[in-house]
Amino acid sequence: MKLDCKNCNLELEINENSLFYSEEKKLEKANCPKCETEVYQGLTDGWFYVAKQDEKFNDTSSIVFPMP
């Protein structure tokens, strides 16, 4: 979802990261990474990841096994 922060006018993109087998949803808030103003709230069983629209989401991060 794309939106603008009403406080600092930063163009944002919000992605929801859901848990695989959770049955409970709760109200979570998403804040602007620049000014910390709440920009969105919604029901989820995970969390919201907020980034500037020109940044890419870091989906390519890898986990090293065995973990230290």
Q: Looking at the structure, what is the overall shape?
A: globular
Order of helices and strands: EEEEE
The low-pLDDT segments are none
Strand content: 35-45%
Give Rg in angstroms. Answer: 14 Å
> How many strands?
5
Average pLDDT works out at 81
Strand order of the largest sheet: 1-2-5
Helix count, per DSSP?
A: 0
Beginning-to-end CA distance, first to last residue: 35 Å
Largest sheet: 3 strands, antiparallel
Task: Please estimate the helix content.
Answer: under 10%
Description:
By secondary structure, this protein is mainly β. About 0% of the residues lie in helices and about 45% in strands. The chain is built from no helices and five strands. The chain has strands at about 1-5, 10-15, 25-30, 40-45, 45-50. It has a three-stranded antiparallel sheet, with no helix packed on it. β1 and β2 (about 10-15) form a beta hairpin. It is globular and about 35 Å long. The relative contact order is 0.29. The model has no long low-confidence stretch (mean pLDDT about 80).
